[in-house]
């Protein structure tokens, strides 16, 4: 089968979708002003927060999910599950009343069953599967956590019972199945597309079991969803959900104030918002980190002394004050202090121009050097203004003779694609955790496996580091796991494939008549429980 360029097909198939206007601020619809366009309509194929926010919780469900109140894993499409004592077999018992979306392009003839679970996971596990290479064969989250080496087999016991057989026990396996990426697709829809030889549409014209179903996408303008009438959970209150794609943060605020949006992403001018009687500003403490990542495959960042020098030359507190307005804390390591695996003994890199100059000279650059920093082109909770952050770093590095060229001319999908290919030299980026297990801060973005998928933007691979992660996943003993993660954090502090900068809060602004919880400490946003009065 041919490999398809997902972005190109997305533009070809969907840019001609026109029809209704964006909608109105009525009791039956919600308009969400989002910061960017999705790269795909299947969370299996991406890791970007912008895409996950747009599609994951709106269109799909997972076998299991994190419960909002306590972050414990609870039932979803699987009503229950059983883990053997050795941790190597997990059996899921599926619900019998789950309907897939009926859309303009697909009418289901049956409810969800075990075949859908097998299709959803075998597609990404088996290179011989007829849908594996449809969007390029990249499933970055699963490939970065070594899913294919962990799962030996997925067995259909009966129509509503599925068993995962693992090669070894893994303490993060269930947490990974509860992430935004582990969605269940329709095997029946896939069969229809295969019969039509339209395999590529599986990731572009989506069919899931989630609270909303896909209606249309106008590239760079809007996404329109309609309520899924037969949703297996409580019926959704909102009939129409529209994502108004507005990359400008001031543009989103203007639309909120002009009643053109109900909710906006990553608001600015917090004081202005709180002054309005009809608006409310909400925040959640996120499991996240912003960082400056070094492409360790490219000079001069193949030299760890250069990476260390840059780390000492950056004034993190000044960035916190200027960019986050105090709504973040300096990152001393990759893990936020709220993680049980956080180690206070790892102090990180402080601000020291003298140490930076000495290390740069030791590395062979006594007169300085020139480097590029790519700035994230969309606002994220972990970095609400990457361009200004880059300018602050540019000024800091001038003090040690380093000239910084800031690259900021790519839109998000191009930026993401070029990063995965390793075109950058250094990049301002970040990570928002998909679940509370500490492994999610390590394996998906810094393991050797994640380097091979391009999700490891530092393109750094250290077998000793990987082994500490592996050892931690072999036990459920929290004390033992914390010891292994402490060793991994010490390696990162010495090798500096990336420099953690900040752990921030995530903000959202909305009209007060929009009720319901949208934000979570990790993962994407969820409109299933939203209503208006």
UniProtKB/TrEMBL annotation:
Keywords recorded for this protein, A-Z: Signal
InterPro entries per the UniProt record, alphabetical: Peptide/Ni-bd, SBP_5, SBP_5_dom
Domain Solute-binding protein family: 72-452
CDD domains: PBP2_DppA_like
Family: Belongs to the bacterial solute-binding protein 5 family.
PANTHER family: D,D-DIPEPTIDE-BINDING PERIPLASMIC PROTEIN DDPA-RELATED (PTHR30290:SF38), PERIPLASMIC BINDING COMPONENT OF ABC TRANSPORTER (PTHR30290)
Official protein name in the record: ABC transporter substrate-binding protein
């Amino acid at each position: 089968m041919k490999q398809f360029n997902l972005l190109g097909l997305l533009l070809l198939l969907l840019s001609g979708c026109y029809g209704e206007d964006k909608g109105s601020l009525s009791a039956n619809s919600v308009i969400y002003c989002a910061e960017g366009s999705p790269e795909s309509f299947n969370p299996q194929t991406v890791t970007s927060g912008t895409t996950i926010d747009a599609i994951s919780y709106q269109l799909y469900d997972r076998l299991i999910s994190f419960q909002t109140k306590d972050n414990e894993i609870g039932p979803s499409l699987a009503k229950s599950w059983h883990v053997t004592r050795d941790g190597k077999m997990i059996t899921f018992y599926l619900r019998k009343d789950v309907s897939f979306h009926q859309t303009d392009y697909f009418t289901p003839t049956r409810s969800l069953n075990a075949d859908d679970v097998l299709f959803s996971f075998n597609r990404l596990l088996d290179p011989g599967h007829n849908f594996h290479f449809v969007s390029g064969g990249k499933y970055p989250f699963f490939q970065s956590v070594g899913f294919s080496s962990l799962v030996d087999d997925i067995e259909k016991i009966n129509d509503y019972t599925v068993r995962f057989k693992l090669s070894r026990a893994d303490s993060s396996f269930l947490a990974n199945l509860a992430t935004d990426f582990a969605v269940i697709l329709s095997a029946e829809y896939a069969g229809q597309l295969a019969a039509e030889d339209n395999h590529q549409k599986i990731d572009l014209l989506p069919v899931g079991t989630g609270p909303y179903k896909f209606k249309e996408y106008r590239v760079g303008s809007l996404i329109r969803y309609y309520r899924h009438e037969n949703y297996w959970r409580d019926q959704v209150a909102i009939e129409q959900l529209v994502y108004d794609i507005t990359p400008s943060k001031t543009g989103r605020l203007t639309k909120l104030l002009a009643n053109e949006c109900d909710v906006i992403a990553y608001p600015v001018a917090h004081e202005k918002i709180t002054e309005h009687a009809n608006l409310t500003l909400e925040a959640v403490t996120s499991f996240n980190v912003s960082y400056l990542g070094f492409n360790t495959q490219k000079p001069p960042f193949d030299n760890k002394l250069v990476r260390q020098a840059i780390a000492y030359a950056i004034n993190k507190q000044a960035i916190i004050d200027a960019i986050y307005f105090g709504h973040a804390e300096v990152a001393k390591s990759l893990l936020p202090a709220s993680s049980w695996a956080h180690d206070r003994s790892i102090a990180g890199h402080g601000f020291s121009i003298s140490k930076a100059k000495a290390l740069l000279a030791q590395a062979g650059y006594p007169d300085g050097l020139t480097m590029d920093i790519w700035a994230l082109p969309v606002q994220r909770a972990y970095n609400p203004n990457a361009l200004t952050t880059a300018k602050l770093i540019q000024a800091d590095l001038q003090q040690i003779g380093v000239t910084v060229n800031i690259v900021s001319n790519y839109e998000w999908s191009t930026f993401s694609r070029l990063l995965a290919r390793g075109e950058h030299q250094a990049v301002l980026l970040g990570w928002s955790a998909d679940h509370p297990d500490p492994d999610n801060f390590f394996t998906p973005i810094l393991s050797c496996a994640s380097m091979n998928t391009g999700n490891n933007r530092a393109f750094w691979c250290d077998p000793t580091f990987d082994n500490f992660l592996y050892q931690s996943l072999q036990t459920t003993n929290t004390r033992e796991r914390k010891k292994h993660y402490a060793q991994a954090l010490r390696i990162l502090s010495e090798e500096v494939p990336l420099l953690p900068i900040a752990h921030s809060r995530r903000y959202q602004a909305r009209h007060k008549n929009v009720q319901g919880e949208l934000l979570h400490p990790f993962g994407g946003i969820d409109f299933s429980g939203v209503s208006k009065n």
